[in-house]
Amino acid sequence: MKRQPLKYLPVIFLLFIGLEGFSQKIYDIELDVRENSFVINNTAVEMIEEEKYASAARILESVIENDPSFHPAYLNFYRAGSQVDEKKEKVVGVLRKGLEIFEEDDEMAYYLGNLLQREERFEEAIDAYTDAINYSKINGEDFPLVWAYHFNRGNCYLKTGEYHKAIHDYDYALQLSPDNYDILTNRGYSYYKVNQNEKACEDWQEALKLGSKVTQKYLDNYCK
Question: Which ranges does the UniProt record give for the TPR repeats (predicted)?
Answer without folding.
Answer: 106-139, 147-180
